[in-house]
From TrEMBL:
Keywords per UniProt: DNA-binding, Transcription, Transcription regulation
Organism: Candidatus Eisenbergiella merdavium
Domain of life: Bacteria
Name of the molecule in the record: GntR family transcriptional regulator
Coiled coil segments of this chain: none
């Protein structure tokens, strides 16, 4: 598992850890039931506070991406297809909001956007 902390980023360190682990789980780089580094070891490797690492793991567990077994550690949870679908739908909605804002600056209509999307989807098939 590779985690890179960008100290110049405005993103909190726990969020950087959370996002990177989550992305690796979604992509399959981290396999189902694979053990994650212990909170202490990850904190030591990244030279950050244990509290920061724990917060990232807690968020991942709360969202169902990892699970904890007492005295054994944290593991990648089995992929919840519905959870992954919801995550992707959320991303699509974010992109569509950005597209809508950009389209408004270009005075594009709803029909223009639908036509553009139809062309893109046809080319993709």
């Amino acid at each position: 598992m590779n985690i890179f902390i960008d100290n110049k980023s405005g993103t909190p360190i726990y969020d950087q850890i959370y996002s990177q682990i989550k992305a690796q789980i979604i992509s399959g780089a981290l396999a189902e039931d694979e053990a994650l580094p212990s909170i202490r070891n990850l904190a030591k490797d990244l030279r950050i506070s244990v509290i920061t690492t724990k917060r990232a793991y807690d968020e991942l567990e709360k969202e169902g991406f990892i699970y904890t077994i007492a005295a054994k550690g944290c593991f990648v949870a089995p992929k919840n297809v519905e959870l992954l679908r919801e995550e992707n739908l959320r991303k699509i909605e974010e992109y569509l909001e950005k597209i809508t804002q950009l389209a408004a600056t270009c005075n594009l209509t709803r029909e223009d956007l639908i036509e553009m999307l139809s062309c893109i989807m046809e080319d993709g098939n």
